[in-house]
Design goal:
Layout: H1 6-33, E1 41-43, E2 46-48, H2 54-80, H3 95-122, H4 143-182
Antiparallel strand pairs: 1-2
Helix pairs in contact: 1-2, 1-4, 2-3, 2-4, 3-4
Length: about 180
């Protein structure tokens, strides 16, 4: 029976958790660095908004959140593969784990939409161009915080699903060991 590589497990878990928490921290930093109302300048009847540092923070948060989500899901899906080496791919279908993965992807999708929109608004909005239809827009308070919370929900759901997969796999292996011992 093949034992899982503990160093690989710790390595992937570290990447997932660090990327997710870094995304959370970057979102919180972007919330404090976003453009404020007093940053808005009028040039005649046209508005101008300089790029804020929330732009770079938002891009970095998107990258970190994406890394955490993709690596976390690859790791989790690996836990669902059966330990038996048969022809073809036999996959275990746990319902709670699948529900957590769906929740994870929904949370991730909403967080990406919020971060992307807010980050797009944080770039420079030139006079006459603005963000949309020549109008300047400011990011509402709490958008980055909301996306940070959604990112944590996605991370927690992914890790929860992976934990259930690991637990199920360990239980399956223990049953096999006991069955072999009884023979």
């Amino acid at each position: 029976m093949e034992r899982p590589n503990r160093y690989g497990f710790v390595f992937f878990l570290t990447i997932i958790v660090v990327s997710g928490l870094l995304s959370f921290a970057l979102c919180l930093a972007a919330e404090f660095k976003k453009s404020k109302k007093n940053d808005l300048r009028l040039v005649g009847k046209q508005c101008y908004l300089p790029r804020s540092s929330a732009y770079k923070l938002g891009i970095a948060a998107l990258i970190c959140l994406s890394v955490a989500q993709v690596v976390g899901n690859l790791f989790t899906c690996r836990q669902f593969q059966s330990g038996e080496h048969t022809r073809g791919c036999k996959i275990i279908k746990p319902s709670v784990s699948c529900t957590l993965l769906v929740l994870s992807w929904i949370s991730f999708g909403l967080a990406v939409i919020l971060i992307s929109g807010a980050t797009s608004m944080s770039r420079s909005q030139a006079p006459g161009e603005g963000w949309l239809d020549g109008e300047c827009y400011l990011v509402k308070d709490g958008v980055y915080v909301g996306s940070a919370i959604l990112g944590l929900l996605a991370l927690g759901s992914t890790l929860g699903s992976g934990a259930i997969g690991i637990r199920r796999r360990q239980t399956e292996e223990n049953r096999k060991v006991h069955a072999q011992a009884d023979e």
